[in-house]
Specification:
By secondary structure, the chain is α/β, with parallel strands linked by helices. The protein is about 30% helix and about 15% strand. The radius of gyration is 20 Å and the shape is globular.
Length: about 375
């Protein structure tokens, strides 16, 4: 792992261009569109020595579960070209310790807080939502249904529209209606747009895109898997094109829903790609391991990139790449089509999926998930 780059505070306080960087994720209004990514900075305490975390859009906490969890065995991390694999396995102290120590510290510090939650069952997500509803200082909830670092891949609720919507519906039902609920989706599916639509119809106020991709590294010296858990989540610059594609596809089918984009963002121009593709805000994650000041730096670089392109407001750049010039063909419709009423031929395997989700019936699992 490359040694961390510590940037002096004086290098971060230069006055950025006079750009309105206000960003909104539902009812959460933030002065910056840059947040931390869940799992890469715990609850922000370590980063606060490098820059003022209250200047960020929000701190997204490491995913919490009801009970303490030791995670997967070591070794848990492996470097790859332009990225890294992690196999942490949702290690954490449990929600009660989080509330007593981490949330209390974040509230005292004055940071905006997005609490990431994870569970083994729909009931666990429901219990977490009910418990968090009793506490102040939570600005949004991110429902992590897409972590690939679990022993049972059947626990990855984001791989099917019906299971994803079941979790989202229960969390939304048991969360204060004033608190936005974002759902974090996996790129390891055939059609992420269909799953996003199912989550939106079940009450999601926003979509977080994307979680890590499932990957694997084999150590050619030992000729064995490099990770004790065999597979892990791939993050870093290598996944950015995939993440941008997912943001684009979801924005095409859900033109109004807030999107929080993440995946390989190292610079302001990387962040701008996500904004142009349709993200309202972005998360910086893996870059923090090399540069703990990365979120503050990306904010300044993004402001400069917007100014260079003539934008006075961040909001004006959101989804700008979707604008159609005169004479351009209409975009490809990414939503599944309803079969024609008089179609007497054989139905395709995906026919009727959107209607089943809309009616509340479970959709067939994605054959490629």
């Amino acid at each position: 792992m490359t040694r961390a780059v510590v940037v002096p505070a004086s290098a971060l306080v230069g006055r950025p261009p006079d750009i309105d960087m206000t960003s909104e994720l539902g009812s959460l209004v933030m002065p910056s569109p840059v947040l931390t990514a869940s799992g890469c900075a715990a609850s922000g305490r370590e980063l606060d020595q490098f820059f003022d975390i209250t200047s960020l859009g929000a701190v997204v906490t490491k995913s919490i579960m009801m009970q303490p969890r030791s995670g997967r065995p070591t070794p848990r991390m492996a470097e790859t070209p332009s990225g890294m694999l992690n196999s942490i396995g949702l290690q954490g102290p449990g929600v009660h310790s989080f509330l007593e120590h981490d949330l209390a510290w974040l509230r005292e510090r004055g940071a905006r807080v997005v609490v990431s939650i994870a569970g083994n069952t729909v009931e666990e997500y429901t219990q977490l939502a009910k418990l968090l509803r009793m506490y102040d200082g939570i600005d949004a909830i991110e429902v992590n249904i897409s972590c690939p670092n679990v022993a049972d891949r059947g626990q990855v609720f984001a791989c099917r529209a019906d299971t994803a919507s079941s979790v989202v519906g229960m969390v939304r039902r048991n969360t204060d209606p004033r608190i936005p609920v974002l759902v974090k989706l996996s790129p390891d599916v055939t059609d992420i747009a269909t799953i996003a639509v199912a989550c939106e119809r079940s009450g999601a106020d926003g979509i977080s895109l994307i979680n890590t991709l499932l990957g694997m590294v084999i150590d050619t010296a030992t000729m064995r898997p490099a990770l004790a858990g065999v597979t892990g989540g791939l993050s870093g610059p290598a996944i950015r094109p995939v993440a941008v594609r997912c943001v684009w596809q979801v924005r095409e089918v859900l033109p109004d829903i807030p999107i929080l984009g993440m995946g390989g963002i190292r610079t302001g121009e990387d962040a701008l790609e996500f904004i142009l593709a349709g993200a309202n805000a972005v998360c910086v994650g893996t870059a923090i391991f090399n540069d703990p000041s990365a979120p503050a730096r990306v904010h300044s670089e993004l402001a400069s990139a917007l100014a260079e392109r003539g934008f006075a407001r961040l909001a004006d750049a959101v989804s700008y790449a979707h604008r159609r010039e005169p004479g351009m063909p209409d975009p490809v419709d990414l939503a599944p089509e309803e079969p024609a009423a008089d179609d007497s031929g054989p139905l395709d395997a995906t026919d009727g999926v959107a209607d089943a989700v809309a009616d509340g019936a479970p959709a067939d699992p994605d054959p490629g998930a």
